[in-house]
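Session log. Operator J.P. requested a structure for one protein chain; no other inputs attached. Running the standard single-chain path with token output.
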Amino acid sequence: MTPPSIPDQEGIQRAFASFSDAVLEAIIAPSWSTIGFAVRKRLEGWDADPMPRLDGRVVVLTGFTSGIGLAAATRLGELGATLHLVGRNPDRVDATASALRSAGSIVHTSIADMGDLEAVRSIAGEMVARHASIDVLVHNAGALSPTYTLSPQGIEMTIASQVLGPFLLTSLLLPSLEAGATAGRVITVASGGMYSERLDVDKLVMTPDDYNGVRAYARAKRAQVELNAEWTRRCRTGVLFNAMHPGWVDTPGVEHSLPRFHTVTKPVLRSADAGADTLVWLAAADEERIGVGGGFWLDRHRRSITKFPGTSAPAGERARLWNWCEENSGSGPQPT
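Structure written below.
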């Protein structure tokens, strides 16, 4: 009779890491707080820093003048990436870009509100003209707005800036993402808030009468995650599409948009650097570590896109969302 095998030390460590991560993920508050990040960094399987270098690679990043975007731009620049950064406020863009250049980063900038589709078309043209290819596109811009506002094209601004604008920019830059020596990457900074919503295209755009900023934001983030999966299904040219959520992060946006939440949770909120970690990892890590696209990530691990009953997308709803984005962004036909 063959005696039972005894797991080696490495196997025991991997099993413990997997169990610990699963326990954290099941309990939202510690998982998304600084506690979850601190614990996971010490578990088996966390890639040792430093991350791979990005010298010579072009990274486009929207929303970079504060918070997670600034932390990501700083770290990507330190890894050697050529940065093309997009922001709304010219003074803040110039000041932040100047500080990044002083630290040694190569920085180009474009001015646009991602909710203004004509401005998005304009900056896409700038990027295509400047760069022979683009290696990474990061969609980070997007705030939680407590008030109902329309974009220049007449679409509620949360959806315009966080769904239609990114969809259009991805569509316009896709040939550049396909033109590099290595597979391009598209990374969307979503939010755990999307777990509360199910994709429903008919309810995606709220009206002035029923507008709720928190719910509009959650619906936009749900749409981002579902589009991430749809881009992966349709685009078969090697470009990797992934979405991530940064956890609960202490940023000016959170403090302004959710002041009560910020006050209560501030002691356990993550730093902006911790919030940006998975974003930077998805941009820099070797492709074999990331695997296939279409993932939703937290702390360098793939996560389920649903947590609650009734929040899975109905059959065909992703395709409806795709068609809605094509029609309302004016992007023209995309991969089928």
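Operator note: The two ends are 56 Å apart (CA to CA).
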